[in-house]
Amino acid sequence: MSRAAALPRLAVTAGDPAGVGPELVARLAHTPLAADLIAISDPDLLHRAAARCGLSLDIQIDDGTSRQMRAPGMLHVHPVPLRAEETPGKLDPRNAFHVLATLSRAADGCLDGEYAAVVTAPVQKSVINDAGEPFSGHTEFFAQRAGCDVVMMLASDELRVALATTHMPLSAVPSAVTRERLERVLGTLHTALVERFALAAPRIAVLGLNPHAGEGGHLGDEEIRVITPTLEALRAQGMQLLGPLPADTAFVPGMRSRYDAVLAMYHDQALPVLKSEAFDRTVNITLGLPFVRTSVDHGTALDLAGSGRADASSLIAAAHLALRLAQPQTHA
Prior knowledge:
The protein contains eleven helices and twelve strands.
């Protein structure tokens, strides 16, 4: 009789202790997800969060052993103690160092092959900065930890949207949209669509920076000077690229059948479209890392923290997608 295969070990970080993340992790633990969930957090924090949701957790300290099954409600934990006990909804800069320690442990565990992938609950960037630690987001943190360039992509069943620039003021975007950046981002996106999403010849729609994609230079010339020449050069290398397209018509139903993913020039150019359609099913993915990292598409929801009413759908979707992306893919 053959022995059952070991479950993939999926690392999960609980985000800011004052937010909804710990409650979402407790709810994730109660799903029948076919993974050995390794929460990188404070065990007492998770017990308190579960109680607020009317749930109980069977928490066991992780010893690195492979397991063949996990009952709903079971959660293995790599302990990272809080600096101060949490008050739901009230940020505490002392716990910023706890948050950073959980992210560091998750990244290092993935790099060392301990975990098949990592799923992250939401953090609060402002409180980490208030604690005196420079931090602009999970994406940038994992990129620095792994020593590589990355691309942020949000995906639902209906749409995949990657970003040429992420967390920066809108006034800084035009100078950041360079040929070198676009070549790097499109190369990373194309490779991920082939290797992670099993698309042998992915089609990528590229948005213009300006209204109407610059309207022939009358509304801005970045499309003429930078974006179009870059796309032409990459097409010559074999990439299937549409654009630059006006952002206001790129997402209409008749256009969507023409591409597999969209590259937007800045954060709020395309993400409102995606989130308005599938907020509870959208997953944030960091492309270009040597491991799989997915996350929720929402923030800490401090107004809901402690109520036990936070919707875990996005974290559950992120966990399912992380498991799928961590498996070897067969090209469509």
